[in-house]
Amino acid sequence: MNKTIGIVLIVIGAAMLIWTGFTYTKKEKIVDAGPIQISADRQKSVNWPPYLGGILLVGGIVIVATSKKS
Question: Could you give the angle at which helices 50-66 and 2-18 cross, rounded to 10 degrees?
């Protein structure tokens, strides 16, 4: 069980180091006057610090290295 969690942390940590965030598009209403509606697409971004991926990667390696062999 611990080894599986460690491997998952390693994969997530490596992915977070490679991709430091992502961008998505959200449709927002600008004018809503009865039957008339005007909307626009707005780009939003989600970013995380690279050190967070490093912490997860190192934590996963430590968990895998210290887990008991079954």
Answer: 160
